[in-house]
Write a structure and sequence with these properties.
Helix content of chain A: 55-70%
Shape of chain B: flat
Strand content of chain A: 5-15%
CATH superfamily of the largest domain in chain B: Macroglobulin (MG2) domain
Number of helices of chain A: 10
Number of domains of chain B: 2
Distance between the termini of chain B: 54 Å
Oligomer: heterodimer
Largest sheet of chain A: 2 strands, antiparallel
Distance between the termini of chain A: 33 Å
Radius of gyration of chain A: 20 Å
Number of strands of chain B: 13
Strand order of the largest sheet of chain B: 2-13-12-4-7-9
Strand content of chain B: 35-45%
């Protein structure tokens, strides 16, 4: 069954959309990542205009991450102070990102820009995950190595604040900066940014792992909230039909994913996920390099004159 | 069964008013609605031609979609990557859909002047561009044609079905991505000497309807409210999702 997406202006097969939501939701339940970095390029491969894919995916992630955030808040795994400091940069970054996308739409280079950003990020995340999973498959019997919090020069910058929940006394400049970068990425790529925030909070800020996921979700909720409104307001690219259909599949998928996570070996599935990510990246590389079927681009500037 | 009803319908609708007009045409559905389950539609036109004129003339029907403002850019290769380049041309007004059907495929032998004045065939379609260089305009017009062909927005192979000696019927397929607006269906009866005997014009209105239209209109007319509702809706959905999780 085909369903017409009013903002994207084209029909998409309902079954494909729901299964896409299901699979990505499954992965996000399994790995605690939002899955936007996988969903947006898939939507682009389905023929949805990149700017609409990015904006609608931000809206989809908002719903998915809010539900995750509530679960973590109940377990008191959220450092609100750190979350709000991250947000200072995050909201600024996401507003800047929306205007950057507006500019790219204006000069008509948004597609290639979004594609190249994805190729770069997917290859980076994919190879990092591949290396990490191979190492942990090898080290599986040696037990976990707990990394202690190390004090690096970044923490010595001015404007130091005490973060009780995270047991930290560090400068607010690194978290504001990290939030800012993730905010931009969220707006121009339609990702929550969890896959960057989580490692950055652990390795750069030195936060304890148990509060990292909940705190990063707090940041993602606010940033995608702002970018959903801004994308709608500035670019009119949020397709709620698309985002809500993705959501239905995603809620069910996340549930299955969370339950299976207990039964399956994480590093083996991380290995598979890394392979999937690298394949998506290679397909995108192909799209950019292969001689195009049409040697031109047609943009509709105004309809119905 | 359907076609019998159809013929009866035509006879009743047209014959009483058939008062010596050489050509009459009408449309089955004058309004096409793009709803949430829209996956394309058909414009069906039918009519009558004077029996005595029919053998010595050509019947041509063209469908011209609503005008859009287009910007076409050539792709160029930078460092091995294909990018939209600097060379471009704009069509300030160009039809967003074009289809043509005929009962005789040799219409292209007709005099160019008449084809031009009646806008028959893609090459004779009236488009306003921002360039004066005719060769450049022609080549970009051709790009637009390839673009339409690949998306089902251009059809030139359609035939007009003839029922009996005087009734005709033609179908034009609109793809799911067809633009909204007024489509003009023009029927021409041209004799073998290349003179226009008669012409007829009908309109079809294609518009978004229901949820699809309401969402689209809201997103354009009240973008901030639309965004706020989208964001709050997502929060609600997330909350419901988390409640379901907790209980299961």
């Amino acid at each position: 069954m085909e369903i017409y997406l009013p903002i994207a202006g084209l029909p998409v097969n309902l079954f494909i959309l729901m299964s896409l939501g299901l699979v990505v939701g499954f992965l996000s339940g399994m790995f605690g990542v939002g899955g936007g970095f996988l969903m947006t390029p898939m939507l682009m491969l389905l023929g949805i205009p990149p700017a609409v894919a990015v904006a609608s995916e931000a809206n989809h992630i908002l719903a998915a991450s809010f539900s995750g955030f509530l679960a973590h808040m109940r377990r008191l795994n959220v450092d609100f102070l750190m979350g709000f400091i991250l947000l200072l940069g995050g909201i600024l970054g996401s507003i800047l990102g929306v205007f950057l996308l507006k500019y790219l739409l204006l000069i008509g280079q948004e597609k290639i820009f979004i594609s190249l950003s994805y190729i770069f990020i997917l290859l980076f995340v994919g190879s990092w995950m591949l290396r990490e999973s191979v190492t942990s498959i090898k080290n599986i019997n040696k037990g976990k190595i707990n990394k202690l919090h190390e004090h690096i020069w970044l923490h010595g910058l001015p404007f130091k604040i005490k973060f009780r929940k995270s047991h930290l006394y560090i400068s607010i400049i690194p978290p504001v900066f990290i939030g800012f970068i993730v905010g931009i990425l969220s707006s121009i790529m339609g990702v929550g940014g969890g896959f960057i925030l989580v490692p950055a909070m652990i390795y750069i800020l030195g936060m304890p792992t148990q509060v990292v996921i909940g705190t990063s979700l707090l940041q993602i909720v606010f940033v995608t909230f702002v970018s959903t409104i801004m994308h709608s307001y500035i670019n009119q690219t949020v397709d709620v039909m698309l985002s809500s259909l993705l959501l239905i599949g995603a809620v069910i998928g996340a549930q299955i994913g969370t339950r299976l996570m207990v039964k399956l070996r994480g590093e083996q599935i991380r290995f598979l996920l890394a392979i999937i990510i690298i394949i998506v990246a290679i397909v995108l590389v192909g799209e950019v390099l292969v001689v195009p079927k049409e040697a031109f681009i047609v943009d509709i500037i105004r309809e119905n004159i | 069964m359907k076609s019998i009803i159809f013929i009866i319908y035509i006879i009743f609708k047209i014959y009483p008013s058939h008062s010596g007009e050489p050509l009459l045409a009408d449309i089955v559905d004058e309004e096409i609605n793009i709803t949430a389950s829209f996956d394309g539609a058909k414009i069906i036109t039918y009519g009558t031609v004077d029996k005595t004129l029919y053998k010595n003339s050509i019947l041509i029907i063209s469908v011209i979609g609503p005008n859009n403002h287009f910007k076409i850019r050539k792709k160029e290769k930078y460092l091995g990557i294909w990018l939209p380049g600097k060379e471009e041309l704009e069509f300030l007004e160009a039809p967003g859909y074009y289809a043509i059907a005929t009962n005789k495929q040799d219409w292209s032998n007709l005099d160019n002047d008449i084809l031009n004045s009646l806008q028959i065939g893609w090459d004779n379609l009236y488009m306003i561009s921002n360039h004066t260089d005719i060769n450049k305009v022609e080549s970009y017009k051709n790009y637009l044609k390839i673009f339409y062909k690949n998306r089902g927005l251009f059809h030139s192979e359609s035939d007009i079905d003839i029922l009996g000696d005087t009734l005709f019927r033609a179908e034009f397929i609109l793809p799911a991505t067809t633009p909204t607006g007024i489509y003009i269906i023009k029927s021409f009866l041209i004799n073998n000497d290349g003179k226009l005997i008669s012409s007829w014009s009908n309109n079809v209105k294609v518009s978004k309807e229901g949820v699809a239209e309401e969402l689209y209109d809201l997103s354009i007319e009240h973008p901030f409210i639309y965004g706020l509702l989208a964001a709050l809706g997502a929060i609600m959905a997330g909350y419901i999702g988390s409640e379901i999780f907790r209980r299961l």
